[in-house]
Every structure is written in C-alpha cells, then in structure tokens.
Write a structure and sequence with these properties.
This protein is α/β, with parallel strands linked by helices and 295 residues long. It has helices spanning 18-23, 38-44, 57-60, 72-85, 104-118, 132-139, 156-159, 172-185, 197-206, 227-230, 247-263, 282-294, and strands at residues 30-34, 50-53, 90-94, 122-124, 145-150, 189-193, 211-214, 222-225. Strands 1-2-3-4-5-6-7-8 form an 8-stranded parallel β-barrel, surrounded by 5 helices. The N and C termini lie far apart (81 Å). The structure holds 3-methyl-2-oxobutanoic acid (KIV). 3-methyl-2-oxobutanoic acid is lined by residues 34, 52, 54-56, 94, 148, 191, 193, 214, 224, 226.
Length: 295
C-alpha cells in the first residue's frame, strides 16, 4: 500500500503560488513588476509577490511600436530566464497576440508549452467576456490564468490607440461585465489597465479575485508597473508611471566616464590587468636562473 507522500516525491512549494495571490484579496496589497531577464529578476524577486514576463518586452526590449509582433518563442525564452533568475515570486508569463484567441484548445496547447518550457506558475491573457470560455478551459486543466481588461494593448488596432477606458459612464457596463466574466471563469486575479479610478474601485469591490492596477489607481488590490518605466530607463512614460529612479541618466553618465577613461588611457589601469603566473613571469625566471648559477 502507498504511504503518505514523502518530501522526495512532493516538494514543498517555496514560491508564491497563484492561489496564494488570490488569497491576499482584502488582506494585503499585492506588489508586482515586469521582468524580462534573469539578472533583473534576481534583483527584484524578494521584493515583489509576482513577476510578470509581459509582452511589453516587444516594445521595451525589442523596439517594436506595439506588442502585436511578439512571438510565442520569444515569450518562452524570456520566461525561462526570469524563472531561472528568481526563487520566491510567482512568475506569470503573457500569452502573446495570436497564441490563444483562436480557440480554447489552441490556447491550451500554447499555454501548456509556456508552462512546461519556462517553469512559470501562471499565464496572463487579454480580454474579458470574449475570453471567458478559454480562461475556464485552461484553469480547469491545470493552468492558472490571470485576466487583463480595460486598456488591452493587443487590441490597439481595434481601439484606435492606447486609450484610457471607462472615462464615460456609458462604457462602464461592458467593462464591469468583462471583470465579472473573467472572475466567474476561474481567473485567480485580473489586471485592470488604463482605467478611470471610480470604475476600478467599483470593479475591485464587486469581484472576488484581486485586481492588479496599472494606471487604474490605488483602489486596486495590487499594483504593477513596467520595471524599465519606474526605473527611468524608458524615454517616455505614461502619466500614471512614477519614476522611482533615474537610471537612464545614470547609465549615460557612466558610459561617458568609461569612454573618456579609455580615450585618455586611464582605463584599464594597474588594478584591472592580469600579471603572468609566477612560473611564466620572465623576471622571476631570470632571478631563479641567476640564483642557481651563483650556488
Ligand atoms: O505586458 C505587460 O507589461 C503588461 C503589463 C502592462 C500589465 O501586460
């Protein structure tokens, strides 16, 4: 007869999990940032509850104007790097445009690839009522899903730009229905992006899963920002971003120092070069030979 599972069979989960995030609603604020590579993931892992490998990486890292061109393989490559660089935070990977909209089974196939090949703990996909069936399909089959409603960047061509949502009362009903549909379908949390504060507050009060705001006010259960935006690395940022540092100018200043040190032959200096190993050092060999002759 099989005994109770031993530690070797079932590891204790040390990372924050999707259900762990869901449980925080009404208890503590959820803190999240995007991460695209192992070294930034390593730096921020201990300070956030989840790391989002957002498809914004197409714009931030790869210079695209929108997130539309981002391929699934690129998300997998960056997702795996972020998982390798982190130990504690839940890693959520964005499903890119075209990888999940066609049908629940296509979404499952691609989301399963993301989970297997990155080791992440959840995926995120954009869309409310229209994606409810897919969210239910994935979450009933072992894939935790984070929803994303309001300003959904993958719909930029339909919306006619990156436009704040819910600033007119007649827009509210559809967005509230999106939030309710995503929660009912089994998402463990939902991103509210670019949304009027009063609407974000109403949605946050009315659904049972945590709302994660980006440009949706302090009324949300948690907050997320694009790391490069809040560090001052992005040349232009939307109004809702607070720049917590100015690393862009710090990097430029460091690079200017480096360039002038190289040009002035001040770098590399004596502290930055390797000498010969003792056995190979010609000076040491000469000394050794003259000592041998003398004896
Ligand atoms: O891709 C991304 O970075 C996102 C955040 C803006 C929530 O989806």
């Amino acid at each position: 007869m099989q005994g109770p599972p031993r530690m070797s069979q079932h590891h204790e989960m040390r990372r924050t999990t999707a259900p762990g995030i869901k449980l925080r609603k009404g208890r503590e604020k959820i803190v999240a940032l995007t991460a695209y590579h192992a070294h930034t993931a390593r730096l921020i892992d201990r300070h956030v509850d989840f790391l989002l490998v957002g498809d914004s990486l197409g714009m931030v890292m790869h210079g695209h104007e929108t997130t539309i061109p981002v391929p699934l393989d690129l998300m997998i490559m960056h997702g795996a790097a972020v998982v390798r660089g982190s130990k504690r935070a839940l890693v959520v990977v964005d499903m890119p445009f075209g990888s999940y909209e066609e049908s629940p089974s296509v979404a499952f196939r691609n989301a399963a690839r993301v989970m297997k090949e990155t080791g992440c703990g959840a995926v995120k996909l954009e869309g409310g009522q229209r994606m409810a069936e897919t969210i239910a399909f994935l979450s009933q089959r072992g894939i935790p899903v984070m929803g994303h409603i309001g300003l959904t960047p993958q719909s930029v061509n339909v919306m006619g730009g990156f436009k704040t949502q819910g600033r007119h009362p007649e827009e509210w009903a559809a967005i509230e229905a999106d939030a309710a549909a995503v929660a009912k379908a089994g998402a463990f949390a939902v991103v509210l992006e670019g949304m009027a504060e009063a609407l974000a507050a109403k949605i946050t009060r009315s659904i049972e899963i945590p709302t994660i705001g980006i440009g949706a006010s302090v009324e949300c259960d948690g907050q997320i920002l694009v790391l490069e935006d809040m560090l001052g690395l992005s040349p232009r940022v939307p109004r809702f971003v607070k720049r917590f540092a100015e690393l862009g100018s710090a990097i430029e200043a460091a690079v200017m120092d480096y360039a002038s040190a190289v040009r002035a032959l001040q770098f590399p200096g004596p502290d930055h070069v390797y000498g010969m190993s003792k056995h190979e050092d010609p000076q040491a060999q000469v000394t050794k030979m003259s000592k041998t002759k003398a004896s």
